[in-house]
Amino acid sequence: MELRQLSYVEAVARYGGFTRAAERLHVAQSAVSAQIRALEAELGLALFARTTRRVALTPAGELFVARARRVLAELDGARTELNEITAVVSGRVSIGATVTLGPYDLPQALARFRDRFPGIALRLRSGLVTGLLGALDAGELDLVVGPVHADLPPRFDALPLVDEHLVLALPLGHVLARGGRLTLGEARDEPFVSLPPGRPLRWILEDAARSAGFTPRVEFEAPDGAGIRDLVGAGLGVALLSRYAAEGTHGPAVAVRHLHPPPVHPPIGVMHSRDRPLSPAAQSCRHHLVEMAGRQPEPSHRPAPEPFDPES
């Protein structure tokens, strides 16, 4: 029994005749007839009842075709999987990432992915999440790694990687620097350092302060998280800052207090467009990024990342 015989029998059953089956298979009708006769001789059973007007399956033929279709479907599935493996080995993935990803170590994750799939070409673009999502819409990127905001449009799919937490950063020796958790309201009389109005971290600060019953007095503004930490370290005010950035080794030392209730910060996740299917290489990369999120150590056990960029 040969694979082509299974294909010929299935085609004759599907198209209702030897002539149409041969046309669809792009082979001579005589070849189809000869192979099916040889198979029937091998089985000792007729698979088709042939008349001058039509060809119909016999009971044995119906049983055989059902089995043949399952075999052919498995073979098609195997071909698809093998093609995907080939695509993964030789594919290309374009990734966009915000400047800071909290405790998620994207360079380490990408290095391990390249070790696993050395034939895949990786491309990384850095930027703000809004611009990166625009590039995702335009088909310029396959994946975006960054904060997953609550208003993420439904045309994007997102998988969480790590949670990000905001803390209150204070100058060393500040009266509020001692103790465990405190409420943001306890800092109502302090000068704040933040981003300019209209930036995400500024929104979070203003919303959290409003919930605590006050309006923050922002005396100093900085263009990014590194600037915020510099100003706080110089004793010019207090600030909401990523825990990972505040406790890291980059920049001046600052005191850290955990807030109760903690201000809400969007989690870090990996996003892609629902409107455009991911290539096998991009699917493998997405799976790898999620897998790596469960393997990365706590911030206190690893080097600090680049300075936090709250605009991301």
CATH superfamily of the largest domain: Periplasmic binding protein-like II
Over all CA atoms, what is the radius of gyration?
Answer: 31 Å
Order of H and E elements? HHHEEHEHEHEEEEHEHEHEEH
According to CATH, the fold-level topology of the largest domain is D-Maltodextrin-Binding Protein, domain 2
Percent helix, as a range, is 40-55%
Global morphology = rod-shaped
Distance between the termini: 62 Å
The percent range for strand residues is 15-25%
**Helix/strand-derived class?**
alpha/beta
Number of helices: 10
Q: How is the largest sheet built, in terms of strand order?
A: 4-3-5-12-6
In this structure, how is the largest beta sheet organized?
A: 5 strands, mixed
Poorly predicted runs? 297-312
Strand count: 12
CATH architecture designation of the largest domain: 3-Layer(aba) Sandwich
CATH class of the largest domain: Alpha Beta
